[in-house]
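<goal> How does this chain fold?
<body> The protein record starts here
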Amino acid sequence: MRFSNSFLDEIRDRVPISSVIGARVTWDRKKTNAQRGDFWACCPFHGEKSPSFHCEDRKGRYHCFGCGVSGDHFRFLTENDGMSFPEAVERIAEMAGVPMPARDEAAERRDKERTTLTDVMELATQFFEQRLQSADGAKARAYLRERGLTSVTQQTFRLGYAPESRNALKEFLASKGATKEQIEACGLVVHGQDIPVSYDRFRDRVMFPIPDSRGRIIAFGGRALSSDALAKYLNSNDTELFHKGNVLYNFVRARKAQVKAGTVIAVEGYMDVIALAQAGIENAVAPLGTALTENQLDLLWRMAGEPILCFDGDQAGLKAAWRAADLALPLVQAGRTLRFALLPEGQDPDDLVREEGAAGFQKVLAEARPLAELLWLRETAGGVFDTPERRAELEKRLRELTSRIQDESLRRHYQQDMRERVQAFFGRDRGQQGRFNRDGGNGGFGQGKGGRQGQANGRVGMTESLARTNMVRSGGGTLPSRETTMLVAMVNHPPLLDEYFEAFEHMHLSHPELKRLHAALLDAMAHGVAHERGALIAVLEESGLGEAWERAVALVRKTRQWPALEDAALDDVREAFAQTAALYSRARELRDQRASVQSALAEAVEKGEEQSCQHLLHVLNTISVDIANLERLEALVEGFGVSSGRG
């Protein structure tokens, strides 16, 4: 019996893959994070002592970094339990509480027809590939050479050429047995009642095959070689196989590459994706000639919780970033958000990697900004806020923006974040509580000392050009001493990585270089190479983080945090690290509590709940005292458990 893809997808989505596998393995407590749906165990397919078998509920997939096995719910049951595929489907359907479908001959016929159509698309792909290498493909080959694409890259992405002919492809497919109806259903010809004879849709174009999530070609994009063409880029029309709003170019390769990279990058076009892949950045995808859609956002989030949207450094790129932010805002939630990277003005990823290589693009990614910051820049860029009315209008717009967030908890945090930005932007009377009044005011928008430098005490916003430059070029600033020292200690003394894995995994790092070092170390642990200092440093160097590592070590030496360095005794390191980790964890916990209480207090003020306000103010004061006491303690113990007087 054949099962429809929609039925298989439904029961897979209803049953966490950890529920299927968890009955047959024991999850490792140190590496597993059940709340995030991230599970580790010793592989059930080969004997091992340390866990290298990983499954992730968000993706519905498992993979062993030791023996290489991977698959979904059904694959696990067929390979581990020896079930047939129908038996595996029946087991998952039972767990999902979904009845098995009655045999649908019409649906089976449609599935068979779709399979036949993918066969036709594969023939078309081969035709375009062959014509690229023929005499009439010389112009296309010259264009690809000018764009810097090697023959290996062209073959990897199966690039081709559609000849300048009205019927070359149609006649080729017919000679291979494809029917008129199949060719039309694939969108390979232009046809209709007012067109007596159909003709090839793509003519005199470099061809980009578009695969689906299983790697099957379902559509094409074509780049015109003639300057007289009506459309520079032309995509296949929507067909039984292809709906452009549901597909991301290079999805299959990027999904595999993001496991190592730690995220996925969305760029604007085919050539950007291909140029990045040739430069070694393989975790990039692109929408297909349209603005990003909700379905494409969902595809991105299925791969990574915080994908990076990378836009060209021009006015159109900035507007595309605004549109994407508005689209995502109602949908974001904890572990499901976006970051935004804007390229230097006048450049796209293809230009950048050709001029500066992968390092230039990685620098742009390291400076990507969170969604909240992008929204703030948009609402304040070019604005003049020299009257109470204009400042109140800004607050109103920010409240309207944050109200679109559907997730209640995240909405509160966004509201708190925007309140703090407004207070810093305009400045406030230090005697005020620093919160919005019920009428929307801020409790004192003067020219007080709280205003940010360089912004005229919040009266004048940045120009759009300056805002864009700030997004693109602002660096991470000085490395924070405590976080840097903790990371250096873990690399120099790998046993700490196992002993403090949970604390390490959930470190909140603000500096982009530290984030990249942290991600590379997590990847090293996932691949079982985190047991030796030399191997860890080799991983960092292979990831292009050699200079970042050297800067981190230099800071540790400069601040004299000796226990973090290579030659310190492990017992001394453990003692110092335990103290530092406890301080770090407690500080993060208190600041999270303060942010939550501040958010709840602001809501209580807006609702006029005086009793709740009094209680929350008392709680806030208590937390503030705890933070002050902790900061005094931290002042006595600099960086890494070393007394400030130690020389």
In short: Confidence is low (pLDDT under 50) at residues 428-457, 472-476, 634-647.
